[in-house]
Amino acid sequence: MADVAFGSEQGKRRDRLNDHETYLEMVRRKRMYGGILLVLFVALLSSGWLLADARNAGGFWNGLPQVIDFPAEVLAEAWAKRANLPGLFLDHVPALIETLNIAAVSTLLGTLAAMALSLLATRGLARWQALIPLFRRTMDALRAIPEIVIALVLIYILGGGPVPAVIAIAIHTAGSLGKLFSEVAENADLKPVEGLTAVGASWSQRMWLGVIPQVAPNWISYALLRLEINVRASAILGFVGEGGIGHDLKLAMQWGQGRYDQVVAIFLLLFLAIVVIDGVSDRFRHKLVKGI
Amino acid sequence: MSANTYPPGLADGIIHSFDRKRRLAFAIPMLILGYLVYAAISFDISSLVQRARFDNAAVLLSDFWSHKTHVTRDNRSGQVTVAIEGETKGTYPDGMLPDWMDSTGGVTTIDLGQGHIVTYDDAGARYTVPGYGIIDIRPKDGKPVLTAPEPIPDWISVAPNKVSVTTEAGRFSYSRSKVETFKYQPGWELWFFTLDSPFYGKSMIQLGSLAISGDRIDPARSNLGYMVNEFWTNKMWRHGDVAWAIFETILMAFLGTMTAAIVALPLGFLAARNFDPLGPLRFAARRLFDFIRGVDGLIWTIILSRAFGPGPMTGAIAIAITDAGTFGKTFSEALENIDEKQVEGIRSTGANGLQRARFGVIPQITPILLSQVLYYLESNTRSATVIGAIVGGGIGLLLRKRS
């Protein structure tokens, strides 16, 4: 039976010596392909770096010693004015809360949309089987548009403030969580759903009572992971657009020298917020996925 | 018999747990709703509705499928310029005019379509609106004086120094210094060739025959090469620049992700409990990953752009650093979950540490690593857009400049 794997003709006794040769031949070919791929990859990567270096404003080797300069300058100034830091922390807490609110609201809205989209796009669960491809493509489209494009368009229409960022991040979240949610829902046990169908439950009741309780731990875990990502995204969008701690950071940076204590205060706040949120969500996710 | 005897308190317990679930089923949506209401208040939604400029949305939408041509007359010099989107790059050269307008002997006639006609002449300007009448404007002491059928409708706005008219066919405005008409037309004008190009205004068939046979317009090169060059260096749409910017963005994502993976793999071994006998080293590697991830791409980007200046390399390094932290964490988790049996097997043949890693561990984790790396490659293509907007490279920069 085992020789099927070696591909020798059926009914023939296999030649041990030849097998060895074939095996070595296979290994050699595999190594050659691997080697070619590796060389190609290295060539691509190094030429890519050279090209990127050439198109950059400052060269790599000129810039390398300067990497430390800016942080050192900022830290030195902040250290000299360290007495200001606690006050500056307090000043920027509202902006941090706004950033966290943007992340939380957009994750919440995105998750709610993703729940509906994913159930509508999952084979076996969907309300309208024929429309599954439509909902899938919708999720792909939501995922494919970069947040910044949506945010810039919305800033133009709605003006500044946190709402454009919320909508932009929520749209992206709906698309990417929808895909993950639908993958989880595909593996859900259909027996509770059948039971609910038997007692005459409507589609929303079947989903709410039969599917959601099964997938909830995984879904919440994914949503928390997304929250971590969205906190960062909302800080970055604040830097590019308006609102939240990212915007404060941009203003402080534009002031430049003399305001570096403010920059450090914002850096530290953001750093602490991200570390705390990551830690809490990491622990919670572990609990959800691996049991208590 | 025993099947019917329940332990005391079981029924109560079940009823209690049902009650709890029922309460939760109400409490959680209420909590979410409460939070959203709080967020709506703190985001100041009510004033947003007033601030929102839905006319901007209309402008954006109409820009998406149409373009406008400005016909401007300088009231002092009498010079008439016709420019697409009002840009110098889209200005019609002398002696060349679009077919819907005519300019002879100091009289300019613009046909806005649907019977709307605008005329500029020495006395002033006239706009004939079908179903309404003639809007006549004459300057008096430098100020425009309006004569139009009364009552003046609200689509004509009259200010001391400016009269502007907005109809479904276009826009017209007369001020002290100039008189201007916008004509809206569908399509992306100049998408292929700008006005100064010899290929402007030719049909596909004409272009095709020029490309294949036809005399050389520029004797130094073939027509097809000339055409491609004119398209690529189109001053209005800048196809070449856009293509480069997209390429740079993808390059940033590719270089950043791959470099991060290469750097993170050995570090991941250091941070995995089952490979690294030295506790302090493991602790240091883990804290390093936490630090890198905590500092976040935004801050890395800012620091690096100070040192390396704007460009794709800065973005690539920023992505590489941020993702090295993430990969380090996920790789070390994957390494901790491997099957030890294969490593044992390799060890029994007398392999050293490097060989055990190469033949016992790497084949096991390759699928996980590859799926991670590919997932991040995809998501980094999007982050590279944002990072490009910050450091100034790639499509993000173009997006930000244009918006």
From TrEMBL, chain A:
Pfam families recorded: BPD_transp_1
UniProt domain ABC transmembrane type-1: residue ranges: 96-281
Which one of the record's GO molecular function terms can you name?
ABC-type phosphonate transporter activity
Gene Ontology CC annotations of this record: plasma membrane
* Mode of membrane association: Multi-pass membrane protein
What are the subcellular locations of this protein?
Answer: Cell membrane
Keywords linked to the UniProt accession: Cell membrane, Membrane, Transmembrane, Transmembrane helix, Transport
Regions crossing the membrane: 32-52, 102-126, 147-171, 263-280
Primary location group: membrane
Indicate the family of this protein: Belongs to the binding-protein-dependent transport system permease family.
What's the protein here called? Phosphonate ABC transporter, permease protein PhnE
